[in-house]
Amino acid sequence: MKKINDFLAGLPMTIVGGVFLVISLVLSKCNVAFPVDPAWATVIVSGIPLLYLSVWRIIHNKGISKISSALLITIAMFAAIAINDLFAAGEVAFIMAIGAILEDMTTERAKKGLKKLIGLAPRQGRRISGDKEEMIDAEDIQKEDILRILPGETIPVDGVILSGETSVDQSIMTGESLPVDKTVGESVFCGTMNRFGSIDIKATRVGEDSSLQKLIKMVRDAENKQAPAQRIADKCASWLVPVALLIAIITLIVTKDIVRAVTVLVVFCPCALVLATPTSIMAAIGQATKHGVIIKSGEALEKMGKVNMIAFDKTGTLTYGKLKVSDIISFDGSLSENDLLMLAASAESKSEHPLGKAIVEYAKEQSVELGECNNFKMSAGKGITAEVNERALYCGNEKYMNENGVSINDDVRTELERLRLQGKASIIIAENNVCIGIVALSDVPRLEAAEVIKKLSAINTKTVLLTGDNKMVADYFAKRLGIENVYADLLPEHKVESIARLQKEGNIVCMIGDGVNDAPALKLADVGTAMGSMGSDIAVESADIALMSDDISKIPYLKRLSNATVNTIKFAIMLSMCINFVAIILSVTGILNPTTGALVHNAGSCFVVLIAALLYDRKFE
User: Fold this and answer.
1) What is the set of domains in the chain, with CATH numbers?
2) pLDDT, tens digit (0-9, with 9 covering 90-100), for 313-342
3) Annotated catalytic, 410?
4) What is the reported pTM?
5) 37, 145, 313, 443: which is the annotated catalytic residue?
6) What is the per-residue burial (b if ≥16 Cβ within 10 Å, else e) of 150-161?
């Protein structure tokens, strides 16, 4: 039965029903007799899904929700059939079918994101037992197992490093723009990528307890918490159905005219009410799409207008998510900044580390001619040594310099601390055991970010920063952009906790992010907005709204659009109720019959659609 219902409720069969309804109208106006009224086809095609929906709700829904707009329209349809007005019966069923299709088109949500997130889970791990090394399935890994992770491999479980040093790309979990240097005793997470050195780890959390599996579970749980928006017509049905029946019965008793009673039921059908929401939403979604904003549901539009707090991820959202050289500091009077850049970039030219690559890329942008790099050696997670133009250079962090006997004086330490407080990553350049300079790198804030924060503040919308970066980096960026509330060092579950806490404080929260690690928070927030063009597929799938141009200046526009949409829906509903009220009076007095009554309230439905369509071309900039 469900398969038949789904087939009949689909767009192709609904169009077929509409064609037969038009044929029925034309034949009746031309006084052409036909053995079987074509409207019967519409009644069957659009009426069976309507009957199925009303019965299903009576059986499965609880309490007053058993009484729905579908039930009222079903009653009107059967009443029209009873007095042999098949056009009226087919018309009310057809309008309801169109409303259902429009709503489905605007609220259908893709489910691919969770599958992609599950696809990130490692399938195998390399277990070490004595001198034996074997590849086993990830689900067979037990707690306390010793695993070896080679460069380029994904870490299959949460664990602690027993031996080796490396840099781990854990952006999937924390959103951090830089790989994190790891050494013995430090924790690593399932699903993160080992970038350089080989490490041996002891499994601490496996299977469903691992960080990645918890992330997957949070997305599932958050998705279940997102209840589908209930139609406004159904909210009103608890009193529409009894009122319509009461008026029809009173009309029948007083006038002794069953046609008038059926007409009351027909014109009382909330078809315009049913169309008001999905058509307004569809027009608004079309308007937003023209501006590069993908809105996945009408519920998101409505809630966006009520949002009073916006939580931003940092990397890739407020910033471009790309490291760039920000400072070149020379401690050698004979070396200019350009000379220091040439030495650093030449030494790093063979490096695979993101910091080294960023320095080389910046040098090329500045048209700096690189020298020849010889005797290149890399220490994973620490730094490199190389000879450039017969100069032996060390490039790396402070720990690497100490291990190689490079002296770090107070002036260098002062600069390193200043850069650290600004959230910048520093590469120390040394020669002959003396620091000759520092090259600092930083993620670059989006040009429009500060202006967006300012505009949101002007419309009484609070902003908060939720990031996996460390506190110093987060505070530095927040201060530059004018964000007062900062939460740093957050794993995905911490972001979810922060969103929940903000909601408990009475805030309606919109979360804006771009990474896999943002997916659970995007789902839990009242409105989730993802950076579409550069954001991860999972973040986009988890969000209610996607900014396809990564232009966060669209956020104020979204609020204006959502407010206008809600106001249009309210106006359309009021208009439809007024039309219904007038039509009921005309029906009771006998001025309208079921067919003309159906045409009148059909005209009202078309007027509602026209009002909604005006949203598409309205200016909100």
Assistant:
1) 121-223 (2.70.150.10), 320-444 (3.40.1110.10)
2) 888 788 887 888 999 999 988 889 999 999
3) no
4) 0.61
5) 313
6) eeebbbbbbbeb
